[in-house]
Specification:
heterodimer; A: mainly beta; B: mainly beta; seven-stranded mixed β-sheet; four-stranded antiparallel β-sheet
Chain lengths: 111, 114
């Protein structure tokens, strides 16, 4: 079964501390993995995807196929990083419009 | 380019009624996907339309249906509303680029069923 698991509902850190939001997935095949972010009163937006392997707003995520994980990391959290973060996967091209989301992790960065 | 728009933004309906939600994708995007977001179940995929055809479908009852028009605009219909259908309904339009599919989400329609 296709599944995305984000074990933490809430993650609270202080400004300047490292952040790691966990994401594990279950998928038979080669999925595409994404991180989406939703800031307060804003729409859901793509943060990064594993295929582009780039850093956005200081966040990075590495796909570990052995551990079926795609954890999101940032070395120094900022207050403006406070938001809901969703890990998601999609299948091959013909299923590209179907995203399977995790339950989300609320990140709270305290001053 | 203008972003994904959804109308109406808020809707209150009574149990047993039906409702139609509308989504206008980003110009040039041919794929439109619908999601239901609730506090208990999170974000769940409803269905996807591509070039006026339903290409993917989630695990929702037949009361949930959709369609897509030739200009890529999409509508979602829920018949015989139940209290549990109260949710935020998100629409996303997507295109297939150099790095695969990329989805852009609308602001959502907040449906309350009383």
């Amino acid at each position: 079964a296709q599944r995305v698991t984000q074990p933490e509902k809430l993650l609270s850190v202080f400004k300047g501390a490292p952040v790691e939001l966990k994401c594990n997935y279950s998928y038979s095949g080669s999925p595409e993995l994404f991180w989406y972010v939703q800031y307060s009163r804003q729409r859901l937006q793509l943060l990064l995807r594993h295929i582009s392997r780039e850093s956005i707003k200081g966040f990075t995520a590495d796909l570990n196929k052995g551990e079926t994980s795609f954890h999101l990391k940032k070395p120094f959290a900022q207050e403006e990083d406070s938001a809901m973060y969703y890990c998601a996967l999609s299948g091959p091209e013909h299923q590209g419009g179907k995203l399977i989301f995790g339950q989300g992790t609320e990140l709270s960065v305290k001053p | 380019k203008a972003g994904v728009t959804q109308t109406p933004r808020y809707l209150i309906k009574t149990r047993g009624q039906q409702v139609t939600l509308s989504c206008s994708p980003i110009s040039g995007h041919r794929s439109v996907s619908w999601y239901q977001q609730t506090p208990g179940q999170g974000l769940q995929f409803l269905f996807e339309y591509f070039s006026e055809t339903q290409r993917n479908k989630g695990n929702f009852p037949g009361r949930f249906s959709g369609r897509q028009f030739s200009n890529s605009r999409s509508e979602m219909n829920v018949s015989t509303l139940e209290l549990g259908d109260s949710a935020l309904y998100l629409c996303a339009s997507s295109f297939f680029g150099a790095e695969g599919y990329e989805q852009y989400f609308g602001p959502g329609t907040r449906l309350t069923v009383t």
